[in-house]
């Protein structure tokens, strides 16, 4: 089965989030979609069905005009929660193993978040408190790591 870009995620709450492919900004930051109801899959990372590396999916936690987004639930998600990724004809279930906070900024010291080597995994990222407008906004990222519960299934 060919590896594919994820097109939607069903979060532990049951809420489904559309996913679009994204790159990076000129300054090297992940170019997350502006709409809080849409997540971005980093096209430089692993794909659904790849046997290795991180499938990196990120979304804004909130916005001034739209309020809280679906990824806000990542701030409190616990070990054992399940996330389902779907693409054209492929579905895979992942189980959350960890949630940690990392400081906002460059991820060069946290390459495990986006690394395409190592065991296959899903990495979900959103902004996390505290929010400090004078320092550019949210000061942390919530990083949720989940592992596949089995191989991808054809749908």
UniProtKB/TrEMBL annotation:
Please give the superkingdom of this protein's source. Bacteria
Q: Which Gene3D superfamilies match?
A: Sortase (2.40.260.10)
Record InterPro entries: Sortase (IPR005754), Sortase_dom-sf (IPR023365), Sortase_F (IPR042001)
Q: Does the keyword field hold Hydrolase?
A: yes
In terms of Pfam families, this protein maps to: Sortase
| Keyword annotations of the record | Hydrolase
The protein's name is: Class F sortase
Q: What is the native source organism of this protein?
A: Nocardioides renjunii
């Amino acid at each position: 089965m060919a590896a594919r870009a994820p097109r939607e995620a069903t979060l532990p709450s049951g809420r489904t989030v559309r996913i679009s492919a994204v790159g990076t900004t000129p300054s090297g930051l992940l170019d997350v979609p502006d709409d809080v109801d849409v997540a971005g899959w980093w096209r430089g990372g692993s794909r659904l069905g790849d046997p290795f590396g991180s499938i990196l999916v990120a979304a804004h936690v909130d916005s001034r005009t739209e309020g809280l987004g679906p990824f806000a639930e990542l701030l409190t998600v616990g070990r054992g929660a399940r996330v389902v990724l779907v693409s054209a004809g492929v579905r895979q279930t992942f189980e959350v193993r960890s949630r940690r906070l990392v400081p906002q900024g460059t991820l060069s010291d946290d390459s495990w978040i986006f690394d395409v080597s190592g065991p296959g995994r899903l990495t979900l990222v959103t902004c996390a408190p505290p929010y400090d407008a004078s320092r550019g906004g949210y000061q942390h990222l919530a990083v949720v790591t989940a592992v596949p519960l089995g191989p991808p299934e054809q749908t």
